[in-house]
Structure formats: structure tokens, C-alpha cells
Amino acid sequence: MDNMDGIDASVPDPLSPFGALMSAASDGEAMTQLQAAVRSLGFEQMIFAVMPRPNVNPADVYLRSNYPQAWRSYYDEHRLRETDPTVEYCFKASAPFIWMPQSFKTDAQHALYEEAATFGLRVGVTLPIRGPGGEVGMLTCVRDQQPGAAFLKDLNHHLPGLTLLRDVAFDAMKPYVRPAEPPEEAPVLTARELDVLQWMAAGKTAWEIGRILSISEAGVNFHIGNLRTKFAVGKRNDVVLKAIRLGLISLPG
Predict the structure, then answer these.
(1) For the HTH luxR-type domain, which residue ranges apply (predicted)?
(2) Which of 2, 71, 98, 120 is surrounded by the fewest CB atoms within 10 Å?
């Protein structure tokens, strides 16, 4: 017994099997370690999917899987997400969903199960994910085994480890679970604002721009103020930089 912290060093740390996953330094490394952890718990295939928040664009769902690509293509082409009972389940429940024929209730769900089974997705478990930032998702682990008592007995043995893995995996992959940033739209500028903007990019002062465009210096400053507002920046240099980034102007050659 270590008298400093009162912990018996001979007792294994329950998180130690997942140390490599917890210390993964990239998205790809985390996925590799997650697959290895799933295999160590007796499952061949898995899918980890998280919505950063409810009702986001499907393209923003973070999804990593080693399911057969043919099954993923079939699933997407036939829009089976609308039929898949595990998807709806994860929005309303927290307990594990046991992947067996009797869990697929409707004819459409049963057809989904039968098709999945042809790809080796025959039995397994779906563990819903609830994140502190409103994230919703799942870790599903499956294997090609006949459903029945032998599978349930083995699942009972591994379920505590799978539940812990679900939480560790979410923490490890949370940095990569974020919606894509919408493309920034360029503001609509008047012809005069574009003229002023181009001369600003050339390094001209307000007085010089006024002389070039035959308008007053106050008029130039008025347009510069409008440009700052439209680009949502405070400095004229930032106006120019943002306009270049958005492709509205180019620097003089």
C-alpha cells in the first residue's frame, strides 16, 4: 500500500487499457486506437458517430467507422438512416440498445437487419452518447455471430468495458467533433465603394483617393466608414485584407 495516496499499486487502473486512445494526438490515431480497443472487447466492427448539436446538417456529423464500404454505400443510397432504429433510439434513450433480430420491430427495420447481417453486422450493441455541449451520438460495436444466449453471455461480460470505452472515446474525439464553418459571404458593395477599396489597397490616403475620384476627402471617409461596417472590421487595413481574402480585389501588381 502506498501511504502517500492510499492506493494499492497492485490494483489495475480501469482506464489503463485505453491509455493509447486517451493520449491520441490526431483524429486518425484516435480512430486506430478505438478500433483496437473495440477488438480487445470482442467486436470486429464499429461505428462512432456524433452530431455536434441536434438538427445540424448531416454533412456536419462526425462519423468514423470500419464497416464494409459496400454496406455504408448501400445504407446511404437507400436512406436507411430514416429506418435505422438505433438512430432514433439515441435521441431518446441512454441505456444500451442490443443489436439482435427482435430489436428491429417493423418490417422495414427487420429488412435493414437482414441486409446488414449479409455484411457481417449480425449482433452487437449501440451505446448512446450525450455530450455536455448538447452533442448526441452513438458507439455501435458489432460482430458476425449467430444471435442467442452465447452472445448475450459474452456481452454481459464486456458491457462495462464497452460503456467505459464509449465515454473515453467521446473525450478523445471531442476535439474533432465540430460543425463545418459556413463559407463567409462577401458583402455587396457599390461601384464607388469598390473604387475606393481598390485605391485603399494601392496605399492611397483618403485625400489622394478624393483627388483621383474627384470627390471630397469627407466623401471618401464616408465610403471607408461604410466599408468598415460591411466588412465588420475596425481598421482600414483589415478592410483591404478581408476584401482580398474574399476575392473582391487583388493587390496592385
Answers:
(1) 182-247
(2) 2
Distance, CA of 250 to CA of 191 (rounded, Å): 16
**95 has pLDDT over 70:** yes
In angstroms, the CA 155 to CA 162 distance is 9
Q: Which residues neighbour 156 within 8 Å (Cβ) at sequence distance 6 or greater?
A: none
Length of the chain: 253
Q: Minimal CA–CA distance to 147: which of 89, 86, 104?
A: 104
pLDDT range class, residue 249, cuts 50, 70, 90 = confident
Question: What are the residues facing 163 on neighbouring strands?
Answer: none
- Average pLDDT, integer, range 28-46: 94
Which residue matches cell numbers 458476425?
144
Domains defined along the chain, listed by start: 16-176 (3.30.450.80), 191-246 (1.10.10.10)
Quote the pTM value: 0.67
CA dihedral over 232, 235, 239, 242, signed as positive or negative: negative
pLDDT, tens digit (0-9, with 9 covering 90-100), for 107-148: 999 999 999 999 999 999 999 999 888 889 999 999 999 999
Continuous segment of H or E residues that includes residue 11: none
